[in-house]
Design goal:
Blueprint: H1 6-23, H2 28-31, H3 42-60, H4 77-96, E1 104-105, E2 119-120, H5 121-145, H6 155-161
Antiparallel strand pairs: 1-2
Helix pairs in contact: 1-4, 1-5, 3-4, 3-5
């Protein structure tokens, strides 16, 4: 029996891959474009999305954080695609493990006056999925504002593309 998180997590990985693939054909001007109300440029948003997901998944897998932020502001599309592909594999590793949504995780940063409360793993998973959807939508907004028809990254299209549903 498949875990209930398989489709949401796989959609997340697939949607990011679709955006990255679409962005392979964009020029530098478009990659560096933004519109008010979004995180930043398309490329900066992609970096942010992927770096945050790497960090969160490391924590969920009980790994020492790999500090993806060291990749910096110069990471290109090809490297981001490699990281996204590795994220998809690592999510499968996570899903194959004994997923305990109540397992306490230490917060990323603990300020002196905030205490040391833990965060349930399920909340971290929810944040990753929300965060990915939010930033992919922002990228699609920038693309649309620049006259591009963004890829259809809805769960319905994922279901068709993955063979989970017929058109």
């Amino acid at each position: 029996m498949a875990h209930a998180l398989h489709d949401p997590v796989r959609h997340n990985a697939w949607a990011t891959a679709q955006i990255l693939e679409f962005c392979q054909g964009l020029d530098e001007e478009t990659l560096n474009a933004t519109v008010p109300g979004t995180y930043g440029t398309i490329i900066a948003t992609l970096r942010h999305l992927i770096y945050c997901e790497i960090d969160s998944l490391d924590r969920l897998l009980g790994r020492e954080p790999s500090d993806p932020w060291q990749l910096g502001a110069t990471t290109g599309r090809d490297v981001l695609m490699e990281h996204a592909a590795l994220l998809a594999v690592n999510w499968e590793v996570f899903l194959a493990s004994n997923v305990d949504s109540e397992r306490p995780l230490k917060p990323e940063k603990v300020e002196a006056d905030e205490g040391n409360d833990s965060i349930p793993a399920g909340i971290v998973i929810a944040v990753v999925l929300y965060h990915g959807n939010e930033h992919r939508a922002q990228i699609c907004t920038i693309l649309g504002a620049r006259g591009h028809e963004p890829p259809d990254i809805t769960p319905w299209n994922y279901a068709i593309a993955s063979g989970r549903m017929r058109a």
